[in-house]
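> call design_seq(struct)
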């Protein structure tokens, strides 16, 4: 894995060398007529197990998917008619739109992330938020939000796409957690995961059930007589084979890293960058740093210095991952500060 000057893990992670080799080997095999469906299934299950390890649950607590929005739509389908959903203001649309357009008369209310816990009340049925905001890199006070939700009897839906891979996250803290693996987990696009509490799973229809949701998928892949899996895997969708081939080694690598060490390393780089730019400290350290750049001037300076960054909502955005080091920090900081 080589990421010199690449500060955009929050946009798309870089494939590991093992992922690249696995995908190329699979394509070569398929080109020569050696498609191995058993091997594909093994990649899916190994990826599921690695993600489960990353978020602190057993593999049967994890459903596979391909997009966060589909998982959000599934959870939205579990809500009673007319239920109130409280969503963090300005959150990523893939976890907002499914609740707005669920067609169940859901009442969607928003509040700024910093005020989200205080906005929960007796009307709230579910609280929806990203543990790390995509546009700003702000880390939510997840513990505070969850505590208030439980006090009011509300459920929680957490998008951890911008978190798992650098920020330690426990899926059991939330009623539902979704994570797309193509960012901080460095997997190919098309690999996502969903965890559900037992209570929420009991209320959730297997709306997208296909052959892979069966208790014994290969034995019940025709007709409608098959029995769905008894655990959370009944919410599986049919896997994108090649994406999981590439995901398996990337997820295994990140699952092998000590979570606290990865958190300290990535946030340490980000903190150094903030200091070099003179940006104010944040309440909770983040591996993502953003600042006002309404006309894209700083982004252009970063690009001219060979830095790959991104811009969202009128802000410049950089991210520090396992493949970055202090040279990336210093190069990016010089590019921005020398133009001012």
């Amino acid at each position: 894995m080589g990421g010199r000057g690449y500060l955009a893990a929050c946009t798309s992670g870089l494939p590991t060398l093992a992922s690249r080799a696995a995908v190329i080997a699979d394509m070569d095999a398929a080109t020569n007529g050696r498609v191995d469906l058993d091997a594909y299934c093994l990649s899916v299950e190994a990826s599921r197990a690695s993600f489960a390890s990353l978020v602190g649950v057993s593999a049967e607590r994890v459903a596979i998917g391909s997009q966060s929005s589909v998982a959000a739509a599934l959870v939205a389908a579990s809500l009673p008619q007319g239920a109130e959903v409280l969503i963090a203001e300005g959150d990523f649309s893939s976890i907002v739109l499914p609740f707005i357009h669920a067609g169940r008369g859901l009442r969607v209310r928003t509040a700024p992330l910093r005020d989200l816990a205080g906005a929960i009340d007796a009307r709230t049925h579910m609280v929806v938020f990203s543990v790390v905001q995509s546009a700003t890199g702000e880390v939510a006070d997840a513990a505070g939000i969850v505590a208030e939700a439980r006090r009011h009897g509300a459920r929680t839906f957490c998008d951890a796409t911008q978190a798992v891979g650098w920020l330690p996250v426990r899926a059991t803290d939330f009623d539902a957690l979704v994570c797309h693996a193509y960012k901080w987990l460095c997997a190919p696009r098309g690999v996502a995961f969903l965890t559900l509490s037992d209570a929420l799973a009991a209320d959730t229809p297997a709306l997208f059930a296909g052959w892979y949701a069966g208790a014994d998928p290969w034995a019940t892949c025709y007709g409608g007589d098959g029995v769905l899996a008894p655990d959370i895997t009944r919410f599986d969708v049919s896997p994108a084979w090649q994406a999981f081939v590439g995901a398996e080694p990337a997820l295994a690598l990140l699952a092998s890293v000590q979570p606290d060490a990865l958190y300290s390393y990535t946030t340490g780089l980000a903190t150094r960058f903030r200091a070099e730019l003179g940006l104010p400290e944040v309440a909770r350290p983040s591996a993502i740093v953003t600042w006002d750049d309404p006309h894209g001037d700083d982004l252009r300076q970063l690009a001219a210095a060979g830095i790959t960054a991104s811009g969202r909502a009128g802000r410049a955005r950089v991210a520090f991952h396992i493949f970055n080091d202090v040279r990336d920090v210093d190069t990016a900081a010089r590019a921005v500060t020398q133009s001012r």
